[in-house]
Amino acid sequence: MLFSLPTHLVDLVFAMDNKIFTPEGLFKRVEFWRLLGDKIVFTNGCFDILHEGHLRVLSSALSFGDRLVVGLNADASVRRLKGSTRPVNGENSRAALLASLIYTDAVVIFTEDTPENLIHLIRPDVLVKGGDWNKAAIVGSAFVESYGGEVRTVPYLEGFSTTAIINRSKT
Fold this sequence. Notes:
This protein is of the alpha/beta class. The protein has eight helices and six strands.
């Protein structure tokens, strides 16, 4: 039996190997996954020097659903949040590393200081941050809960932070 899919869905099916998206492309991919019945999980961060703490957050986040979307702060955003010496690694390199991980299904770079706009765009079923975040302080938490989504934190892994790694490298 033959059937016809809308063009944007056909494009998604044939581009499944690419995990780095624009916000608009991500919206289309999330729409496709929802048609498949997948539960969408979102987390975000700078992921400047990828370390074990990041991997624990990403693997735990994926355990809450079917598809993990990672919002990545752009270089300018990282500088505003962390200072003029950061990021150590550029946004394209950080995005490529995140996209290469088995845990991640999509990576999207955002230029704002917070992922609020992305969260509103994709409406994740689950919003996840590391345990060093207070649930009430997690950007987008009230919005996600307003439509029945979940907000989860995963345990913080002591001793693993990009700042600590940078400081250790200076000694």
